[in-house]
Amino acid sequence: MGDRSVYPPVAGQFRPWRAACGTRVAKVTPRSTIPHTHNEMTDPGVSRPRYQGLAAARRWAHEPVRPRADFSLNVGDRVGDLTIIGHLARGRITELYQVWSNEHWCALTGKLVAPAHLDGDVPPPSFRREERVLKRLKHPNIVRLYGSGVVEGRPYLLLEYFAGPTLYDVLESLPKRRLYMPDAIRATMHVGAAIHYLHRQGFLYRDLKPGNVLLREGIPILVDFDVVRKIDDRRPADRLGTAPYMAPEQVRREKLTPATDVYGLGVLLYELLTGRWPTDNPDVDEEEWEEEWLDSDAGVVPPAPFDGRRPALRTRDLEHRYPQLLAPPVPPREHLAHLDPELERLILRCLAPDPADRFQTVSGMLAALAPMLRGRYRLWPEGAPIERRSDTDSR
User: Fold this and answer.
1) Which of 91, 122, 183, 367 has the highest CB neighbour number within 10 Å of its CB?
2) Could you tell me if 136 and 202 are in contact, meaning their C-beta atoms sit under 8 angstroms apart?
């Protein structure tokens, strides 16, 4: 799991939401009700912009809840020119606050290293890694970084603030934790666009899950980049991620490729559609699934024995905690009988145990998924060129 703790379930109250910095939203009169003068004619070639978000988000108002965690700072405390105005979440090594920025004149998210993990003014490797990566990323579906530094001995990242819920919150508010199929496909395409861009920048994400996706005006935005990894030929020295969403090669610490994140996208789409994971639930709590956060920049498997901070997992333990190592994914139509068989085949291809049998690129997966949004649910006009290449089967 990333540094952002999964929010507790929030009962959905549905009403329109406001912008994050408190901007008043002007009431817009529908075009059809605007009186026309005798010499004004409607242009049949003009149409309103297409809504790109999730229908479920239009009915959602995120009522902030008091996080169930201890924080080192209180509302009203100052950290440099930042003022703490709310508590968001506490992760493995960080604390997330809603802060008021005097420089930007609005509320942002302050991500600070927790006191217990401070080593002078030097932030942990995962914190430095997230900062380096976010400085390079500029994409509509990726959280924005507005600054970083060290204030009073506390390293911090200054990130975009979201008033909207996570996909986890949305699922928890719905019957059987299921999104309507067009919403599930839209969410996956937005997240997939972020992952495709991340791969083009030379990085793997490795921790796809609903709790790491926040909504900005209904649009899914990917957050938490502290476990990203460069795309290279080296075997990882860690087993980072959240168990139900990890590809088998990720669990085994084998070479990772973009197909590893394709697996994570497949699990995400499976859960958004069915409310379930592709395999039977392990008999352990999700908090126990955080595996060996070594916080090391090393990229190879160390030859020395495990360092003793946690017992090395035996094969039987791995198979218990990660059933995807042995159990094939349950076909999603067993949970959702009316699911399009073509969509089921796409999901099962993403979840193939062998990376070579999956889509080799996220763009290949998205090219196959895009035509499944039909009619008014399309994100683009009918007939628009959305994919120039036709080699979807090889990708």
Assistant:
1) 183
2) no
